[in-house]
Design brief:
single chain, about 80 residues, mainly alpha, 3 helices
Amino acid sequence: MSPSNPASGRGTHEIRIGVWASEEQAQDVVERISRALCPDPEHDGPCEVPWSISVLGPEQVDEGEDGYEGLVEQARIEGTY
């Protein structure tokens, strides 16, 4: 996370949402969040509030340094990993 700009009080904030899902389900979540953040994707110029979204595959999450250890453990317990 970047420090706040003292002049504006704004800064970069990261919001993480961990969801154990199939690739199709993950893409559905991405589409829904994208529509919530930018309801008019055809607008001119950048969004008023800059944002980005990404999806991590299981092999990336399994490295254990992303904060999703509990999510991976839950998937193993449920037999979905």
